Amino acid sequence: MIKSIGIVATTGKPQVLELSQRLIELAQPHGIKVLLQEDCAIALGRKDLAGTLEKELATCDVLITLGGDGRVLQAARVAAPLGKPVLSVDLGTLGFLAAVKPEDIDAAFEDLRQEKYFIVERLMLQAEVLRQDKVIFSGLLGLNDAVVAKSALARILRLSITVHDDLVAQTRADGLVISTPTGSTAYALSAGGPIVHPDVPLFLLCPICAHSLTQRPFAVSSNEVIEVRTEWEGDEVAEGELEVMLTIDGQVGVPLRMGDVVRVQKSPHRARLMRFDEESFYARLRMKMGWQ
Asked: Could you tell me the residue range of the domain that residue 71 belongs to?
């Protein structure tokens, strides 16, 4: 039984405040508690309902996102470790992760209240950064991808890619995308990777603008541990002048130094996404990609 709802929303998007207010109105007669992120609560004049995503909202029975896939990624990283489901109301453009259209919010709420929904689970990755063999960042959880890439200067990186302690490649590129199946329709796709059904247990490794015609995206089992050592040519650019970042889901960034190792593997947590219909992945793909 649903007793509390956390609303994850970007107030700058059209309809967010209207939909947030509507959810409050729908929940109130049933005694369902609603919490909002602070900026949304202030905009609605309901500071009494304000909370932070990582603390108060994360404890709710379900998180409802009002926005695009970015809000789903944000909510999933918080909800997955707690086993909480995420319901996405589509206010974005592509919306591969969306479940509900804004005009269907009333019907969706009633189905939610009566528990007429099902859960689809998605593989997530976890990343950590090692510097001189010591872990300096850990617990970096992602639903879409982990990306190692330069963020300044038109220079290239030299990346040593190891899978299960076996050197796969030493590639020169602008960066590398390590993607889950869910992320195969995101950055990995623009980097030349294939689209993967979300139930296939693998990681995609997609070089970004590789400086070799033979370097191509490839897939490895999701049970493998992937390590990427970051290097760059000392005679091309001095250390400290080339900014390199590890980015999780395009939202969480960690600065890297020369020689740092990014280790990526399957997370024990899985994203839990709510659905109300049996629409297939391929039907959604046809619609979103305009293949009809």
From this structure: 4-117+276-289
